[in-house]
Amino acid sequence: MQCILIEKRDLPFYLAIAGIFIVSKLVFSQVSTDDMRYFLLPLDGLLALATNSGSLYLPAQGFYHAQLNILIDKSCSGFNFFVLCFAMLAFLSVRHFAGGRQRVIAMVTCLGLAYALAMFVNGARILASVLLQRIGNPLGYQHTELTHQMEGTFIYLFFLIVIYAVFQFLLTRRARANAERL
Predict the structure, then answer these.
(1) Strand, coil or helix: what is 60?
(2) Which one-letter DSSP state was computed for residue 168?
(3) Mean pLDDT of 24-52
């Protein structure tokens, strides 16, 4: 078993990542659905494209798809997945880059990558929810809030594990390639 120690030079970056995570979560708890449009608009577009469903934006509520009878609101934004994914990717990146400038660039890149992944994964979660709602549950229970939460938890956890494994693999491969060049 390998023990990973935090080196002194890494600590400011880890603290910055943790700070960004904590501040983001605090800010998210205070914002409205209207403030989350940068997250909701791509999801609404994806849902509209995948289901051929139009939506109506209801101020302070979100995007309502009458044909599907669903509302894409702040709770559907995927923001929590976004900040968790960012923190995971950034923590992985810090130890793979040596210079401070490289680490800052990596963190900013992780922010953009986490946003793109959050839109993809959250879009998949919403589409899966719509599909389950349409086909019904073969086990006979209703598509309730608990079912919705369990489905979201499974999808988010599955994708976080896959993203971690792929990102770790790519960073390790990059490190080996750099070591071989030396």
Answers:
(1) coil
(2) H
(3) 95
Rounded Cα–Cα distance for residues 119 and 41 (Å): 10
Question: DSSP letters along 79-146, please?
Answer: HHHHHHHHHHHHHHHHTT--SHHHHHHHHHHHHHHHHHHHHHHHHHHHHHHHHHHHH--TTS----HH
Cα 176 from chain centre: 28
d(CA 70, CA 64): 6
pLDDT of residue 6: 72
CB-CB contact of 13 with 107 (8 Å):
yes
Residue type, 118: A
pTM, 2 dp: 0.89
For the stretch 44-81, pLDDT in tens is: 999 999 999 999 999 999 999 999 889 999 999 999 99
- Please work out, in degrees rounded to the nearest 5, the angle formed at the alpha carbon of residue 134 by the alpha carbons of 51 and 136: 160
